[in-house]
Amino acid sequence: MNHIVTVQNAVTAFADFMEPTDAELEAIEREMPLVLAQVDLLDAQIVCLDRVPNELDTRRIRRALGRVLAARAALANRTDTLQSGGAA
Asked: What is the number of alpha carbons within 13 Å of residue 37 lying toward its C-beta?
């Protein structure tokens, strides 16, 4: 008979080391405007799933898409981000 044992100690033994680093937290903070804009776009699209979008819905989706594109452009144009690789 094979005994089944828990591996909780092995899984949670490294929990203290699994915290995000400061650099990872800063990256999340930098990307947060884009994430929020994408959530707004998704919300606008979800509203239109079960019905034909009216003019107001179309405007809402277009504005949300504009915010996503602006947030992507702002994130891509940041000069304080370090880019790894590439020619120097």
From this structure: 19
